[in-house]
Every structure is written in structure tokens, then in C-alpha cells.
Request: fold
Amino acid sequence: MRFLDKLEEVLLMAGLSLMGLAVALQIAMRYVFNMPLIWSEEFARYIFVWITFIGAGYGARKGSHISMEYFYNKFAPKTRKIIAVSTNVLSIGAFAYVFPTAVSFMLEQNSIASSAMQMPMSWLFAAVPIGCALMVFRLAVNTVRIVKGAEGGSK
Reply:
């Protein structure tokens, strides 16, 4: 678990840094040297997609996804536990439902190259099944913690 936690954080920090660097480099090349880069906007966009899907798992781990805390906190602790577990189970079901279609779509995109970087589009679309798998894993761990009564269960 600690390895996955650290890997998530490192990937998110590296992704944000690379995205910022690519955009800054593009600005410098375009406006200072009058020689715009062809690949930088596409690269930054693709990194953003990956950050979004990895960040969803990170958000689930930290319990920072949007919730209606005002109403949630009005319920008794036992009812809150039932709501949290039910919400997690429904979310796990939704992500598990999307996963096979995302894998299939990713594989179909392997023969298509991106316009600027000429990389297989499957590399971009791999973020979706990986993000779904991360969410299922994080929500399952969270659900077990809630059921066991351990701290760290999010709403």
C-alpha cells in the first residue's frame, strides 16, 4: 500500500511538473524565439488526462471527492456508515462497469497515432482503465475500513 501511495504522489507531482514545463517552454519558444513547438500542447494535454485519472484515485484515498457533508452529518453515525458503504459499492460498480469498455477502446486505438507526437493513442486512453482500476481499489479499501470501523473511511 505504501508503495502505491508513494507512486501515485510521485506520478502526480512529476506530471504537474512536466505539464508546467512543457507549457512554459512553449511560451518561451513561441514568444521569445518565434519558433513554436509542435508537440508541447499535445504533450501537456495528454499529461493532464493522466493526472486527472491518477488524481481520482488519489482523491479517493484522501477522501477529498465532493460530498454533501451538511446533509451527511445530520444522520446518526450508524446511518452514515450505511450511506458511505452504499455509495462506495455503487461507485465501485460504476467503475467496474466502465473498465472492460475502456480496455477495449484503448486497444482499438493502438493503430492510431497522435497528430503531433506520433505516439499510439492507446497510450493516452490507457489512463481510463488504469484510473478505473485505481478507483475500484481505493474505494474497496475505503469500504473495508468503514465496515471495520477504522479511521480514514471517507463519506
Notes: The chain is about 75% helix and 0% strand. The longest helix spans residues 77-108. The chain has a mean pLDDT of 93. The chain has one domain: 2-148.
